[in-house]
Structure formats: structure tokens, C-alpha cells
Amino acid sequence: xxxxxxxxxxxxxxxxxxxxxxxxxxxxxxxxxxxxxxxxxxxxxxxxxxxxxxxxxxxxxxxxxxxxxxxxxxxxxxxxxxxxxxxxxxxxxxxxxxxxxxxxxxxxxxxxxxxxxxxxxxxxxxxxxxxxxxxxxxxxxxxxxxxxxxxxxxxxxxxxxxxxxxxxxxxxxxxxxxxxxxxxxxxxxxxxxxxxxxxxxxxxxxxxxxxxxxxxxxxxxxxxxxxxxxxxxxxxxxxxxxxxxxxxxxxxxxxxxxxxxxxxxxxxxxxxxxxxxxxxxxxxxxxxxxxxxxxxxxxxxxxxxxxxxxxxxxxxxxxxxxxxxxxxxxxxxxxxxxxxxxxxxxxxxxx
Length: 351
Known about the structure:
This protein is of the alpha/beta class.
């Protein structure tokens, strides 16, 4: 059994990690920290976990984590892991970081997109970007895994086969996302307040969104020129889920056969990618509703011959494949076990 600690376990990402890890057959959750909720039973903050654990939140203490854990999930706000992770590594602990603090290889990206200067350049090179579909072998031997952002996950997975196969112009890509409110975290804000969000579709950070850096970084791996994307999220009236509608322009005439070849060629054996493109019924293309509670990414596509566009649709649960589920998938790879362990859930219908 691998002993697991979670730093910052009282937020939504921490709660989702606990939901998955408490039922995982090969791990033991030994410590969960929270500055604000120390001393509280976990199930008082995450009521869905009632009956699954009697653990209480504790204050963060590196020595105690070192003694009680083998691996740490850091579920801190962005900027909260940059100085913490080196201390955990020095203590001999492996780390899966759920924040953005080690996702970017270029440290200048933190000043551009996050507004602060990164202070641990060497760890940026050491950290492995935690998207198994792209970095499976590297993750297996990593000391630090930097889990992707939720919107970045949906965009990268939808686009990677097209960029890899050279089918689309890499400087003419638009990503339009509809995002559930849980993506904003558990602390209430005026923009996430339910009465303000209900019944609306609100564009936000319509240019310069911080996930652009991740998407361009990872897609450029497959291209002989830098990938450049437009990226605009919208706050919509749902709690969980992301639907990315991606607009691309083919370099030459393409057919559905070409697209099936590209997507199946890259994702044919991937356990958590489902290709969704049907000719009849009401569920012809991806809908995030049917990924909720699962680690699946559903991907579909459509050719628009009228405007010579290729549309891609990528749907995930932002809390699972977009965060904690992906973290557990990376954990399984680090442990050398079946990467679907603890993640075999079909979701619900109807819901």
C-alpha cells in the first residue's frame, strides 16, 4: 500500500481526490491538511464522504508528512506550491501537484499569465506534465508530476491528433469553452455566486487566459512551428463539466476517414478517451453531462464544407479528468499498476 497525503484537502480538488483515493485498493490516505479546517472531521467539509473515513484535517507539518506518507498531492491555490514542493522533495517524498506552479517549461510564462516570478527554474525542467495520453512513460519515473489545468486538458486532447498528423493550420485555432462553476474553486466570489451565474452565459478572460500557455506548450511538441491559439471560456449554468468547441482550418481537403485515422491512431488504446460521433439519436456528439464523475474525455468532430472548417468537440468533468481523476491516473502510473485502478466509473444517465 502506498501512503498518501493531501495538502489543501478542504477544497473541491482535495475533496474529489479523497472521493477517489478512499476507495482505491492500493493506497492508504494517512494525512490531509487544511489551515482553515484543521481539527474538523473530513466528512464535515465533504459530506459525500460520510461513512468512508474518520480522518480529521490537520495542520501542515513537513516532518509529520515525511514520517506518515510516501507521496503527496498538493492541492493548493496557484502560487502555493512553488516553495512548498522543493521541501517535500528534499524530504524524500514524491509529489503530484494539482496547481499550475510547475506546468510551464518557460518560466517567463508565469510572469505573463500568472503575474508572479517563478523561483525554482530547475524544478520546471524536472517536473513532468501530467497528461498520460502525451507523457505516459515520463510520468512512470517522475519525482514531481504537474497536473494540467482542466480547460487545457480538454483543449489539448481534442487537438493533439490533428496537430500531430499535420492536418490543420497551427496558427488558426480557436478554442471556445463552456465551463461549470466548480472550476472557480470552493471559495465564494461575486462571479461564481449562484444567483449571478444562473440563467446566463458569461464570457470571461476572453483573451490572455492562463491556460493558453499550457495548450501551446504541449501542442507544439507535435509541430515543426509554434502553435498559436485563441482561447475564450464562458461561465455557464452547470456545476461540473467542460465542453470545448474547437475551430480549426484544414491544410488540404480532408474526409471523415482521415479524421478517424488521426484520432484512432493516437487514442485507439487509450482507456479514458471515447470517440463520440454518431449519425442518429440525440447523443451524436460529446456532452459533458455524460462524463460527470468519470475520468473520460469524450471527443467528436464535424467537417463544415461550407466554410472549410473542422470542428472538434471535447467534453470532460473538470473535477475528474480535468483535475483529481487525472491526478489518480498519474499516481497509478507512478505505482506501476493498471492506470484505470480506482477510476472505473461510468457516470450516470439520466442525471
